[in-house]
Fold this protein.
Amino acid sequence: MRRQFTAIALVVVLVATAGCLGIGTGGEGSGTENAVPEEGAAIENAAANQTAANQTVRAAVNDSTAGEEWDTVAVSYPRDRFTVETVAHENVSLGVDTDADGEIDRRFNETHVSGVNTNDYSYTIALDTGYTLENDDVVVVEYPAVDTPEESGTYTVAVAINDADPVDTDVEIGE
């Protein structure tokens, strides 16, 4: 009886906090999943000690890349805390939010990916999109194979579009 009560209480707590945690809300729980950075980048928060966590990165296009064809995106995590696994081209989701409303307006599929290169802590996706980046575009990349650290905390992640200097953003790793 006590185990059943404990299990029911746990379910009630999870359901009651689901909206706060972003569970079942379409990824809007932490406020960064659909956040449109005016400059720099934003990354989806995650739980600690996850294997193959899905990470969504949003990076604002600025003067250094505007007018260029979108041909690469690179994301580097702290090397001693995260592990990035290799994925097939069709498992990477790519898009551009062209009107800063938080929704992807241009989608790209595996036919636009010419390579996914990884090492233990980063990935670089080479692209053939034919899409010319414009000021105020927000590049959106969903990468489904990031192992998060065991320790919760705030970690700095570097994001670069094409050959531009990387910008840093923080990811919150919760318990």
Summary: The longest strand covers residues 138-147.
